[in-house]
Amino acid sequence: MTHYTNTNNPIDFPKKKEIPMLERFATQSLVEHDGELIFSKEKFAELIVKECIDCAVWVGKNNHNPVEPIHTAHAVKRRIEKHFGVEE
Predict the structure, then answer these.
(1) Residue 33's CB: how many other CB atoms inside 10 A?
(2) What's residue 40's pLDDT?
(3) 34 and 48 both lie in a single domain
(4) What is the pLDDT, as a whole number, of residue 7?
(5) Any idea of the CA torsion for 54, 58, 61, 63, to the nearest 10 degrees?
(6) Which of 1, 4, 53, 60 could bond 13 through an S-S bridge, CB–CB 3.0 to 4.6 Å?
(7) Phi, psi (rounded to 5 degrees) for 35
(8) Residue span of the structural domain in which 1 resides
(9) pLDDT averaged over consecutive 10-residue blocks of the chain (88 residues)?
(10) Residue 38 Rama label (left phi>0; alpha psi -120 to 50; beta)
């Protein structure tokens, strides 16, 4: 992985397009607490859940099968949001 600093620390400004999705989510889950960066499990989980919601919406928008109506994907989205307590 290419970094913009001279360290081998994976959170030292890596180029985004070279980071796998979960590693990117982990980097985005760093929050400041008492002047230090800490990993937030809650933020990490929220990013994963939002990704699942985006997937459900994508399926709904791209579903060309008339047997499964588009509202099914939105029902899945609402269920995921409600279950995990994720707000848009």
Answers:
(1) 9
(2) 96
(3) no
(4) 55
(5) -140
(6) 4
(7) 80, 5
(8) 1-39
(9) 50 53 90 94 93 80 65 78 74
(10) beta
